[in-house]
From TrEMBL:
EC number: 4.1.2.4
Record's compositionally biased regions (Polar residues): 219-228
GO cellular component: cytoplasm
Reactions it catalyzes: 2-deoxy-D-ribose 5-phosphate = D-glyceraldehyde 3-phosphate + acetaldehyde
InterPro entries per record: Aldolase_TIM (IPR013785), DeoC (IPR011343), DeoC/FbaB/LacD_aldolase (IPR002915), DeoC_typeI (IPR028581)
Family that this chain belongs to: Belongs to the DeoC/FbaB aldolase family. DeoC type 1 subfamily.
Domain of life: Eukaryota
Protein name: deoxyribose-phosphate aldolase
A GO MF term: deoxyribose-phosphate aldolase activity
Annotated SUPFAM superfamilies: Aldolase
Protein's organism: Clohesyomyces aquaticus
Positions of region (Disordered): 171-244, 380-403
Any one GO BP annotation for this protein: carbohydrate catabolic process
Keywords, ordered alphabetically: Cytoplasm, Lyase, Schiff base
Length: 403
């Protein structure tokens, strides 16, 4: 694409300003400070119970997805390679494909951020970097250092993995105490686990597994799971400090990352929904909103099933509730800005992509972006009665087992 003759777009100017203003590695990076909490753990629990009670997934019309084949459709895609053994030439190909197709970003690990920034100079494609990938159990300081290094290297978006284990543990649990007390041990254990899980990664397909079940049902409906069955009939029980998760620890981590990486850096929180119940997904969404994250994202693609339709619907409903309900109108005191939802993990086809967009996701994280675009072109050409163009090389190839 020839960008030399066209005036820069607003987003190109924003990216250029960001790249000029970002800190220089090793020279301007000051101390990292943790944010203090806004509420006690009990107070968080009360607010979160309210969100769990109020969020409703309605049997509603589909959301309007960008037209297949339009630039807006391509811009929903974060073109992703996160496998540990990715090579520099694969990353270069990823960048050139993203430019050609008009994707929103390339999503890579920290070691490739600088390379992608160089590759994508002058293009509207931004670089997204994962943080705490893929377990999310690294200690907060290590995530902060990673986030800072990514932004300093030119990442415009950060996809941060939630420490989802905290949500499934009680504040007083032994494992949680050990993790907090000894983050370095936990970190190295995480690294070896990352390697193991990466090797064992089985590339789940979206929507092929049973959605997580929760205490949610539509009013007057007897459904107990599935796409439209996530309205809470009863909030979680009255919080008691000893049996609630350490919400404060999660908020503190997220707020510290936000404080270190202010807007225009886009922050996405990867929930790893396959590991969470609907109530826990809502708790995570609540804390992400409170910490001013821009997106909640379903999955890493490396742990359990990928994005499910039910999870996306619940997350979209959560972002709508959290954007409108404030302390003043009887809702949780979070904020008014609406988060967006990114569906990721196992989004392999045009049908998968459309399903997620029609459920209200506005971004897709996928290593199958080229395939999805090729399918889009075929659909368009068939619709217009033209002969489909010949199959071009696809970077994403399931048979190689690569991400
Ligand atoms: O965040 C993105 C995911 O890792 C991509 O997963 P995927 O390779 O299943 O498309």
């Amino acid at each position: 694409m020839d960008t030399s003759t066209k005036p820069p777009t607003e987003s190109q100017i924003l990216i250029q300003d960001f790249l000029t203003a970002r800190p220089t590695l090793d020279t301007e990076l000051g101390d990292i400070e943790l944010m203090t909490d806004r509420y006690t753990n009990q107070e968080w629990a009360v607010q979160i119970a309210e969100t769990q009670k109020k969020v409703r997934v309605e049997e509603k019309e589909k959301y309007e997805a960008p037209v297949v084949g339009s630039p807006a459709f391509a811009e929903t895609i974060d073109h992703t390679i996160l496998k540990l053994d990715a090579t520099a030439s694969q990353i270069d190909a990823l960048c050139s494909e993203a430019r050609t197709e008009g994707f929103k970003s390339v999503c890579v690990r920290l070691n490739f951020v600088q390379r992608c920034v160089n590759n994508l100079k002058g293009s509207p494609v931004v670089v997204a970097c994962v943080v705490g990938f893929h377990e999310g159990t690294q200690d907060t300081h290590s995530k902060l250092r990673e986030a800072r290094a990514a932004v300093a290297a030119g990442a415009f978006e950060l996809d941060v993995v939630l420490n989802h284990q905290i949500l499934t543990q009680h504040a007083s649990s032994k494992a949680q105490t050990e993790h907090t007390a000894n983050p370095s041990t936990s970190s190295s254990a995480t690294e070896s686990l990352t390697a193991l899980n990466t090797a064992a990664n089985s590339k789940p397909r979206s929507g092929t597994s049973t959605p997580a079940e929760g205490p949610y049902s539509l009013p007057g409906s007897s459904k107990s799971n599935g796409l439209h069955s996530r309205t809470s009939s009863k909030p979680d029980s009255t919080p008691d400090d000893s049996n609630i998760p350490n919400y404060s620890a999660i908020y503190t981590e997220l707020a510290s990352i936000r404080s270190l990486c202010p807007s225009p850096v886009t922050l996405k929180l990867i929930l790893e929904t396959s590991q969470l119940s609907p109530a826990q997904i809502l708790a995570a969404a609540h804390l992400a909103a409170a910490a001013n994250f821009d997106f909640i994202k379903t999955s890493t693609g490396f742990n359990g099933r990928g994005a499910s339709l039910a999870d996306v619907q619940l997350m979209v409903a959560a972002t709508e509730y959290l954007s409108t309900k404030t302390k003043n109108n009887g809702g949780s005191p979070v904020r008014g800005r609406k988060m967006q939802v990114k569906a990721s993990g196992g989004v392999r086809s045009l049908a998968d992509a459309q399903k997620m967009l029609e459920a209200g996701a506005t971004r897709l994280g996928t290593s199958s972006g080229l395939w999805i675009m090729q399918e889009s072109r075929k659909v368009l050409e068939e619709r217009e009665g033209k002969r489909p163009s010949p199959v071009s090389r696809l970077y994403t190839d399931d048979s190689t087992g690569g991400y």
